[in-house]
Amino acid sequence: MPGSQSMATTESARFRAAIQYVEVRRSFNTVRALANALIAAVGAYMWVEGAEAGPLIVSASIFIVLHAVWARTRGVSALAPLLIDASVMGVVSVFRGYTGALQGAEFVYLVTGAVLLLPLRKASLTVLFGVLWAIPMTLLGPLIEPASMAEWLDVTAIVASAAIVAQLLYSTGRALHEAEERHRHALDAEKRAVELKDEFVSMVSHELRTPLTSIGGFADTLRESWANLPAKEVDEFLLIMRGEANHLSNLVEDILVIPRLEAGQLRLEPIEISLRREAFEVARLVFAGTTRELQVDISADITVVADPNRLRQIFRNLLENARKYGGDQVLIAGEETGDTYKVVIADNGPGIPVEDRDRIFEHFEQAVKGDTRSEGVGLGLPIARKLARAMGGDLWFEPRFPTGAQFLFTVELNPSTGSAVVTDLSDDSNVTPIWKTG
């Protein structure tokens, strides 16, 4: 309800200071220490000149200096420093004579510090504490002769308090500017989140509608004309429907795996599997019906320890990316790297611009934007990377010379596996074509 929200906002404001003390703690106490060091120096001069107030002024100022040095890296509230300053200066005024200029400067500093650094309730109590010191000052001040050379102390106190107030006001301006920047970034992030949500819904709707429409259309055709269609054409229709169903299944799996990956609750069941066999099986499905030349150079005796479903998902997302954006050749190779095996999936396409090489691993991002956007929802690469890392490996991009792109990922190598075949992807002559589709 709006009313309850307003009350909650008002209530929370009581416990929130204008400036977070920890953000200005070091600079505030540094200026506080320097200001009181100046007062201590003046008190020492008064002491040398025979002023009775000198020792008390020096002692009180040094005490504040020591506390300020200690508080530069400690404490989460300005309440203690402000109360200490008010108490010390009140004691000095009561026992060595009341001067209006000194107390006026200290009171301005106390009010400014309380309003800026403390929540409303604590600020009010702190100011009241400072006002209460006026009682003994009013009662006892006239009975005590002001310290000799009091004008020196007044001027110094005014300068010191002005320095602290100036520092607080500067910190306020800086804090407000930073808060405005954070607010602007938060609004931009919220706007981007809304855009991503709308874009995601649009992309998913499109990706779901296209195969569903295809499946529905072929199903209607088969239902109405089954008896009149040649067997070869029926098989072709069923194969297309099966491919569209696989596409839907893969899309749903990619979408569902995101929250489990983010929450760290994805269940993995690693077993020993043949890397070459998994690469072949996924590649045949992804590139079925295309005219790409597929080349695999992974030794048959290479076995890895991985969750087979998630390993296939990594292969599928990387190979689908190569199918959509690569050229007419796709290479699958790898090499042994210590306890892991590095898999390389390369193509001879246009590659990825430098400015997009980090963005492609973000959710819902594609290298091609706008009306020329390819099929998919921009989840394949970030999911593949997270799956690789979840299984103890990693996944990254490298440019391929002279043109093209290559994505590399590592997977745990079975200790009993044989030696891997090392392939130099910069020279296609080292790669033996395994099959060619289309």
Plain-language structure description:
This protein is an alpha+beta fold. The protein folds into two domains: 2-187, no CATH class; 271-436, Histidine kinase-like ATPase, C-terminal domain (Heat Shock Protein 90). Helix content is 61%, strand content 10%. It contains twelve helices and eight strands. It has helices at residues 2-14, 21-48, 54-71, 79-96, 100-117, 120-132, 134-140, 150-225, 231-263, 275-286, 308-325, 380-390; strands at 271-274, 293-297, 303-306, 329-337, 340-347, 395-399, 405-412, 435-436. The strands form two sheets. It has a six-stranded mixed sheet with strand order 6-7-5-4-2-8. Strand 6 (395-399) and strand 7 form a beta hairpin. Helix 2 runs antiparallel to helix 8 and helix 4 packs parallel to helix 7 (134-140). It is elongated. Mean pLDDT is 78; it is low at 1-13, 367-374 and 418-438.
Structure described in brief:
Helices cover 61% and strands 10% of the residues. It contains twelve helices and eight strands. A six-stranded mixed beta sheet has the order 6-7-5-4-2-8.
Helix content: 55-70%
β-strand number: 8
Order of helices and strands: HHHHHHHHHEHEEHEEHEEE
Rounded to the nearest angstrom, the distance between the terminal CA atoms is 63 Å
Number of domains: 2
Could you give a short account of the major beta sheet? Answer: 6 strands, mixed
Give the class from helix and strand content and strand pairing.
Answer: alpha+beta
Radius of gyration: 37 Å
Helical region count?
A: 12
Q: How would you sum up the global shape?
A: elongated
Strand order across the biggest sheet? 6-7-5-4-2-8
Low-confidence stretches: 1-13, 367-374, 418-438
Residue fraction in strands: 5-15%
What would the average pLDDT be, to the nearest integer?
A: 78
